[in-house]
Design brief:
The strands form three sheets. An eight-stranded mixed beta sheet has the order 7-8-17-13-9-12-11-10, covered by helices on one side. Strands 1, 2, 5, 6, 14, 15 and 16 form a seven-stranded mixed beta sheet that branches. Strands 3-4 form a two-stranded antiparallel sheet. It has 13 helices and 17 strands. The protein has helices spanning about 5-10, 15-45, 50-80, 95-110, 110-120, 135-150, 150-155, 210-215, 220-245, 285-295, 300, 310-315, 365-370; strands at about 130-135, 155-160, 165-175, 195-200, 200-205, 210, 260, 270-275, 305-310, 330, 340, 345-350, 360-365, 370-375, 380-385, 390-405, 410-415. By secondary structure, it is α+β, with helices and mostly antiparallel strands.
Length: about 425
């Protein structure tokens, strides 16, 4: 990709670091592709690859991962809200009062203003023992940041609730239907069979610490500081739970449900295709298994489908070619975008398992339809100036739940024999 193409596509023409990272990545990918071609030629000629070529390929794979991480960090930094993110927004009198009262609480522990506001609004979402609600704009900033940092939240469906549990009805079998003639009798149709999915919200917490100097500095926007501190901690915990959480005091991850072979799939289970080799892809035509996985998904879901895997799994798949000799994995067309695999975007999730015996290391599906993240409204903060003196701790909590809402929308590749 040329410099001009990069500047046009990336949207960051004035960021030399991002420009450099993208150039380094594309250079490493080109060298990786050429080296892998040599490796495949060696295998075809000599039935084995040269060890020096294998080592070089591994180094290039690691280099690509390094450059990708660098781009991700720079894009994330560029996506963060600028300093004073709420200063120019049009706010109601109540919002300004809340912001001022919360600022006084965070800086000096003054609670009278927040108590008065919560009594006035008859708030049941917080209390003095559980902390105080942060201003609405701070909560919005945290939630937007989480969507940027947390990969599953970014692609999953989302609901906001005011209670502790979100319940969603679904139809196991629809009402009876049929064709009839214009004057024929219309028999009574059967009623639909409904069941219910339940998504309880669990408490997630972070505890950033501040010095008295920082809190006394009037130039520091404490709302923004708090949002920056908690979002990374929340995102790391969320990501792990959305993938493999057991549903006990945390969301239920999509890998925690019972998985069955696609031919035996039924509602309530997740379906998979097996590679036929324990802990690995098949010895030949590896890309065929990924194509087969694509077509286990109904066409209605494929339009919005994507791959989910971790970095090491993606590194293995980068080497694969299709029947015409084309690489099935392609780098992102611009900084901040996703790479593609067989024409579908790849979402990198480090909490996905690496390839191993009977592992479900590759997921494919419409995660917006298949997995639901539930957020209870309200982000609370409890100020603690005593536990870690001279630092002030801010026990920050939110309630979040999650689980599969459509068991037909996500499929897996299992690295096993059956």
């Amino acid at each position: 990709m040329s410099t001009n193409e990069y500047e046009h596509k990336s949207g960051h023409p004035n960021d030399p670091d991002l420009h450099s990272a993208m150039d380094d990545f594309m250079h490493a990918f080109t060298e990786f592709r050429d080296t892998n071609d040599s490796r495949l030629e060696d295998i075809e000629r000599k039935m084995s690859a040269d060890i020096i070529t294998e080592e070089k390929l591994a180094r290039l794979n690691n280099a690509m991962d390094h450059h990708q991480r660098r781009m991700d960090e720079l894009c994330l930094k560029a996506a963060r809200s600028p300093r004073g993110f709420g200063s120019t927004a049009i706010q109601t009198e109540g919002q300004l009062q809340h912001k001022s009262a919360f600022d006084g609480y965070v800086r000096g522990g003054e609670t009278q203003g927040l108590r008065a506001l919560e009594q006035k609004s008859l708030s049941v979402a917080s209390d003095p023992d559980g902390g105080y609600l942060v201003p609405e704009e701070t909560e919005t900033t945290v939630m937007q940041a989480l969507k940027t940092v947390s990969p599953i939240r970014a692609i999953a469906g989302n609901r906001q609730v005011s209670g502790t549990v979100y319940k969603k009805p679904f139809s196991i079998s629809g009402p009876g239907t049929g064709w009839v003639g214009e004057t024929a009798a219309r028999p009574e149709t059967t009623s639909p069979t409904l069941a219910e999915l339940s998504f309880p919200t669990m408490e997630l917490y972070a505890m950033p610490a501040a010095t008295s100097t920082l809190l006394d500095d009037s130039a520091v926007n404490v709302d923004e500081w708090l949002a920056e501190e908690v979002r990374t901690a929340f995102a790391a915990q969320e990501s792990a739970a959305f993938v493999s959480g057991d549903g006990v005091n945390k969301p239920k991850g999509f890998l925690d449900y019972t998985s069955v072979a696609e031919g035996s799939w039924s509602w309530g289970n997740t379906g998979y295709l097996a590679t036929g080799v324990d802990g690995d892809f098949a010895a030949s035509d590896e890309s065929d298994q990924l194509i087969d996985l694509i077509y286990t998904l109904k066409s209605a879901y494929r339009a919005n489908a994507r791959w989910v895997m971790n970095r090491t799994t993606q590194a293995a798949i980068r080497k694969f070619k299709d029947a015409d000799g084309n690489y099935i994995w392609q780098p992102a067309p611009q900084a901040g975008a996703s790479p593609s695999l067989l024409g579908f975007e790849v979402t990198e999730v480090e909490d996905m398992p690496s390839i191993g015996s009977d592992s479900l290391s590759v997921a494919f599906g419409d995660f917006n339809a298949g997995y639901l993240v539930v957020d209870r409204l309200g982000l609370r903060v409890l100020r603690d100036p005593f536990t870690a003196k001279p630092y002030v701790l801010f026990y920050t909590t939110k309630r979040v739940g999650g689980g599969i809402q459509d068991f037909d929308a996500i499929k897996f590749l299992k690295f096993g024999t059956s």
